[in-house]
Amino acid sequence: MTSQEIRAQFLDFFKGKEHKIVPSAPMVIKDDPTLMFTNAGMNQFKEFFLGNTQSKVKRVADTQKCLRVSGKHNDLEEVGKDTYHHTMFEMLGNWSFGDYFKKEAIAWAWELLTAVYKIDKASLYVSVFEGSDDADNLEMDKEAFDLWKSIVPADRIIMGNKDDNFWEMGDQGPCGPCSEIHVDLRTKEEKTKTPGASLVNQDHPEVVEIWNLVFMQYNRKADGSLENLPEKHVDTGMGFERLCMALQGVKSNYDTDIFKPLIREIEIITGQKYGKDEETDIAIRVVADHIRAVAFSIADGQLPSNTGAGYVIRRILRRAIRYGFTFLDIKKPFIYRLAKVLSETMGQAFPELREQRQLIENVMKEEESSFLSTLEQGLVLLNSVIKSSKNNTIEGEKAFELYDTFGFPIDLTALILEEKGYELDVEGFEKALKAQKDRSRSASEVSKSDWNILMKDAEQEFIGYDSLEAHVKLVKYRKV
Ligand code: ATP
Ligand code: MG
Ligand code: MG
Ligand code: MG
User: Fold this and answer.
1) Closest ligand 1 atom, CA of 78?
2) What is the pLDDT of residue 454?
3) Which end of the chain is more exposed for a tag (fewer CB within 10 A), N or C?
4) 330/323 Cα distance (integer angstroms)
5) What is the ipTM, given to two decimal places?
6) Greater model confidence, 471 or 166
7) Distance from the CA of 435 to the center of ligand 2, in angstroms?
8) Which residues neighbour 433 within 8 Å (Cβ) at sequence distance 6 or greater?
């Protein structure tokens, strides 16, 4: 089955269950100060869940363009290293706004996977929220457990904690317990050696979560407490690329027909071969993944820039450029050339890729040449700093120079250092950045009002960096 057919079957199935099929919301969010990018299918329906607005229809389904590179859902570090987390991905979903609840959501998910897509029942596991004895003090989801028990043997039901089985959009907003469906893609032999149940949620590349059924019943308030939502809702999200992996009999999202044409094109352009060497493979996967995030963002009207969402996109592209430069040995712009293949494979479902192809290519090519013009020099500087460093940690001042003069986003510098077994003095970097900010502030104080606009930009840039900080700290934490 092709990915086009898989997507169409999902939508047809829920159309048959009286769902209205709606278009994906933009991936780049312009009107919500709490969220820069859509990170789940439910984002566009947030107001319905909160009861602030009434939906005209009670049941909808769609495929949603998502990006998970910042905030609560940040998968950037896994991308390319594993074979099932992307920056940009499609999330298939069905929703009930105060209409059906757990019974139908569970029964239909099972029907679609096993009767329509014909996934072997013996390869599926489900999970149920076990409850929590923290401040929320929540009970186990007995209702979901009993429903699953009537469908699958008890040893296929896994009890899950808050991390895996309580879905929250962010620090605030609608949330609730969830039941997830996992698929075991291992060979028969491997399955007899280790039971699949023990590998669920263990970051195993062949025992992966495909679908999350969230039962929205709470709203997390600003003070951290939970209140009941006025009505109960269903919010589901299924990773489209992972579903295609399961249905196409492959063991990596990158071996599906969604990614294969991109990888083939990268092989042609770079002269490298996918599947021979892990370092090269990671770089190829990173490029194949990141082109999608950047192209979809530009198609949504968000160009790479120095502030806010634009800077997130710039960081993603620069990350891909550097992987190409160092590991695929390509010293000139090439990622923009993948936009053609992308618009061919995904343009039917997302026509904006076809309509904006020229813009996507032009912007990316320009971004690539501009970063490539300083990348090599920056890498030389970084190498010499590493060589002359007396301990394992690189001074923040140097990272700031790379950022300021050579356009190295801080997380890129941290990534390169991590590869070489070094750490970054994040505080020193912050200090240098703040000093620059203060300089530009005092400069603007003496200038005329026109400059206030520039000042605002500088301010935003700093806010953008704040969200990076968490990321860099994570890198440091993992190494320890
Ligand atoms: P995981 O545990 O694998 O990180 P998740 O629990 O964070 O996934 P959910 O928030 O439940 O994911 O999202 C619903 C579905 O979207 C998941 O079941 C998965 O199939 C898919 N998904 C989530 N994150 C990604 C990603 N980064 N790339 C591709 N698919 C994803
Ligand atoms: Mg996740
Ligand atoms: Mg999960
Ligand atoms: Mg999940």
Assistant:
1) 27
2) 31
3) C
4) 9
5) 0.99
6) 166
7) 36
8) 400, 403, 462, 465
